# Entry
Amino acid sequence: MKYCKWLVVLLFFWSCDNQPQNDGTQTASTALPSIEEATTTNDNSNNTKPVINDSLIKFDNPNLSEEEKARIMDKISKKYLMGQFDPTKDERFQKIPNPYADKEMYMRKEALASFKKMHEAAKKDGIKFRIVSATRPFNAQKAIWEAKWSGKRKVDGKLLSPTVKDPKARAIKILRWSSMPSTSRHHWGTDIDINSVNPAYFESGQGLKEYEWLTAHASEYGFCQVYSPMGKDRPFGYQEEKWHWSYLPISQELTTEYAKQITDQDISGFLGSESAPLIEVVKKYVLGINPTCK
Ligand SMILES: [Zn+2]
# Structure
């Protein structure tokens, strides 16, 4: 079994080295045949999560060379976890085609393949899902954050720079709506916002119907609502986001690695980054998620 698993890993790397550069229009099944063939899913009827099956390997093979280990670990490097890479040039990522998104966005291939299956199933129930946000690299998040930090973009209808002097208070205000660069799950390509980012949208009518469908079925496709209602189980972090769903077969491993590899002191390179340790951004915001998604 162990060797079988490693054969899959080697096939994956062989496949990546030998595939032509993904032009963003291929489907996951044509872009990565070895992964697709190897993907096994637990029986959805008993509502278990899909088996983790991609490049994020817990490697335990003593015969693995140092180079191979380094190459695997490079895939879950600090840089990747903090969004410092280019998803348009990364073979693990794929451009999201129409009709799943209406602007240019990228996502991890396996997560996209599963989203497509969920999209088809929902369509049969009269529900249409569209991805409104997917991978956002560090620089994209930095632009959003710094505009708010420096008072060029309003937060809750106000410019923060002149009104909120204390860096900790200012960061907390921005964190109500936006992640700090380096700490967003949108860096990973496993997390998506579906249909709307307006809380009111999901309270009634079609939005409510969509949310009820997701809570009933998204787990069958590996997706979990990481920003669940705040309360005893989730005492801190972002407010509830009914639109934000995370593809656990990859993101669970990334959450674990983030906890191991990244500290508040690693968060730097943008205006206001000195507030990261003051608000314990890793513990409270990155790891302050729905416990059932961990
Ligand atoms: Zn989101």
Q: What stands out?
A: The chain has 13 helices and six strands. The domain at 109-294 is CATH 3.30.1380.10 (Muramoyl-pentapeptide Carboxypeptidase; domain 2).
